[in-house]
Amino acid sequence: MLHPFPGGALALDFPGTLRFRHRSEPREDLSAPQRLGEWFQQAGITQDEIPLGPADLDAALRLREAVYRLVLARMADEPYDTDALALVNEYARKPTPVPQLTAEGRQMEATAEQAFAAVAQDTVTVLSGSDASLFKECSNPECSQIFLDRSQGGRREWCAMDPCGNKVKAAAYRARKRAAGRKALAGRTR
Ligand SMILES: [Zn+2]
């Protein structure tokens, strides 16, 4: 599957793999170890497929939720959860993926542990830097994706036009039409 990367940072896109957290049933993009492997590849953390098992997936989901908790705390200007902080820092201490030069160019190689470390170190970098002031949650009420709003004047509203921007714009259009319809009806009965 093709994973979306609308966040602008691994620390935001990794939590985004549990999509639509504001629905009663969020959508899990990392439903199998293979999906996690695809995410690492598409995120550019590694080029080769990393052999991953169910234990790796469990660890990844724990790390993901810890990263998400820290991001939310940073956005709300609240203290970090100590367990989440300890977990992310533990992974951040591990070695990260290694770039290698090959005839084809730069090749990124990673073990599962190195891939986790890449996400954890990105979390440390993003949350401790000035980019954290650009965090914004998508304006689609169902969508929980947080992104870095680098637009001029901080006007970006959606994680992506498809589906979120389109969906909200379509809903606003329908609401306007309904309101116009009510007005027309009121005009007729007057
Ligand atoms: Zn969205």
Automatic annotation (TrEMBL):
Pfam families: ABATE, zf-CGNR. SUPFAM superfamilies: Jann2411-like. It comes from the Bacteria. Transmembrane segments: none annotated. Residues 136-177 form the Zinc finger CGNR domain. Coiled coil: none annotated. This is CGNR zinc finger domain-containing protein. It comes from Streptomyces broussonetiae.
